[in-house]
């Protein structure tokens, strides 16, 4: 079975632009997570979905960041008015329940010029 | 001060050596402790997890948790070149949903095993 997939694998954008990052979780996984990993750091929690709803979005750094999961499967992380400090690898993970092992995708490497 | 502290290394050892990796933490609510391995340009992969103090062994890997000292360790026996990766400690507290969803990671220790 396929693991967590993320598209695009790399994204280069200019400061001020809008970007969307996509995550396809493992089929049947109800929980989905977004993390951000800056160079030389561990992943940092952003948001957790249980089904279609954001159960915990306490890690989103500011209101430029938003995520959706409209049908309880695929999720999109949206970043408005990108800044150079947003450059990082954005990781998505999924689990079979909110208490289960989190399986990570390969990440999307975002570079803001 | 970060909730989870981990020496970033790099740590370089000869093949066959015993490797010791460790983390300290400050949040006494953490109950679920994990070690992830991350290869370059890949997502983290869960190696081991434990819910309490004590030891847990899986093949060449042993995880230790000392909640009284807020200290966790990962030991790798008979290290192999294929073990060369970044090792991330991670931990979480029980959330309002009853699980351990919000995971806090250390910075990761980069390990190189030299043939």
Radius of gyration of chain B: 14 Å
Strand content of chain B: over 45%
What's the overall average pLDDT of chain B, rounded?
Answer: 92
Q: What is the count of helical runs of chain A?
A: 0
Helix content of chain A: under 10%
Q: Secondary-structure element sequence of chain B?
A: EEEEEEEEEEE
Task: Give the arrangement of secondary structure elements.
The complex is a heterodimer of chains A (113) and B (115).
Chain A: E1 5-7, E2 10-13, E3 19-24, E4 31-37, E5 44-50, E6 53-56, E7 65-68, E8 75-79, E9 88-95, E10 103-104, E11 108-112
Parallel strand pairs in A: 2-11
Antiparallel strand pairs in A: 1-3, 3-8, 4-5, 4-9, 5-6, 7-8, 9-10, 9-11
Chain B: E1 4-6, E2 11-14, E3 19-25, E4 30-38, E5 45-50, E6 54-58, E7 61-66, E8 71-76, E9 85-93, E10 104-105, E11 109-114
Q: What do you see in this structure?
A:
The complex is a heterodimer of chains A (113) and B (115). Chain A has 113 residues and is mostly beta strands. Chain A has a single domain (5-95), classed as Immunoglobulin-like, CATH 2.60.40. Chain A has strands at 5-7, 10-13, 19-24, 31-37, 44-50, 53-56, 65-68, 75-79, 88-95, 103-104, 108-112. In chain A, strands 2, 4, 5, 6, 9, 10 and 11 form a seven-stranded mixed beta sheet that branches. A four-stranded antiparallel beta sheet of chain A has the order 1-3-8-7, with no helix packed on it. In chain A, strand 5 and strand 6 form a beta hairpin. The termini of chain A are far apart. The mean pLDDT of chain A is 94. The model of chain B has no long low-confidence stretch (mean pLDDT 92). Chain B is 0% helix and 55% strand. By secondary structure, chain B is mostly beta strands. Chain B has a single domain, classed as Immunoglobulin-like (Sandwich). In chain B, strands 2, 4, 5, 9, 10 and 11 form a six-stranded mixed beta sheet that branches. In chain B, strands 1-3-8-7-6 form a five-stranded antiparallel beta sheet, with no helix packed on it. Chain B contains no helices and eleven strands. Chains A and B meet through strand 5 and strand 10 of A and strand 5 and strand 10 of B.
């Amino acid at each position: 079975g396929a693991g967590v997939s993320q598209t695009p694998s790399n994204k280069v954008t200019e400061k001020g632009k809008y970007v969307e990052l996509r995550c396809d979780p493992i089929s049947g996984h109800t929980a989905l997570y977004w993390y951000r990993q800056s160079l030389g750091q561990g992943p940092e929690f952003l948001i957790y979905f249980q089904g279609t709803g954001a159960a915990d979005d306490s890690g989103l750094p500011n209101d430029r960041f938003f995520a959706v999961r409209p049908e309880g499967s695929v999720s999109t992380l949206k970043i408005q008015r990108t800044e150079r400090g947003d450059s990082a690898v954005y990781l998505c993970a999924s689990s079979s329940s909110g208490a289960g092992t989190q399986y990570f995708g390969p990440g999307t490497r975002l570079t803001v010029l | 001060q970060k909730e989870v502290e981990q020496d970033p290394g790099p740590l370089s050892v000869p093949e066959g050596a015993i490797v010791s990796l460790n983390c300290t933490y400050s949040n006494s609510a953490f109950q679920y402790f994990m070690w992830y391995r991350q290869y370059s340009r890949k997502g983290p992969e869960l190696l081991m997890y434990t819910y309490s103090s004590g030891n847990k062994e899986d093949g060449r890997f042993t995880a230790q948790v000392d909640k009284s000292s807020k200290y966790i360790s990962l030991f790798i026996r008979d290290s192999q070149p294929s073990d060369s990766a970044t090792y991330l400690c991670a931990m979480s507290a029980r959330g309002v949903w009853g699980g351990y969803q919000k995971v806090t990671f250390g910075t990761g220790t980069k390990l190189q095993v030299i043939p």
